[in-house]
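INFO batch 0412 | record 1 of 1 | parsing
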Amino acid sequence: MSTASYICHVCHEEIADLKGYLYVLYSEIAEYDRKNRDFTEKHTNDRGWLVIRGEELWEMPNKAPWRSAHNKCLNTSNDYWIEVSRARDVHQLFDWTLHLSEKNWLGSTNWFSMVRELGVIDREKGGGSND
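INFO prediction complete | emitting tokens
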């Protein structure tokens, strides 16, 4: 089974177990929610449909990013964090996905794309869709 490696976004070195965490900033979740609400209002027509032209896709806000960092590189005491040793393999990431799915803010983050990019899910063996 593959395991995920995490690189600190501050110092760009690999993070060993118990030396860092994955985290998301609540302030960035709130910012995404505000920008997404504004975007949706701007592009909703009089019938209540969201209508976006191709050139307007670039205006869509980016979801709040999950990042990884060493304990020594960053303090995230007021944000949501997961110690890296608890999110190394597909089973742990699945458990976290179930847990996080109960949070009303998960859809405002890039959790799902981040998990896909970790490379611990083997799509050749039916480990996920290509969406």
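INFO post-check: Confidence is low (pLDDT under 50) at residues 123-131.
INFO record closed
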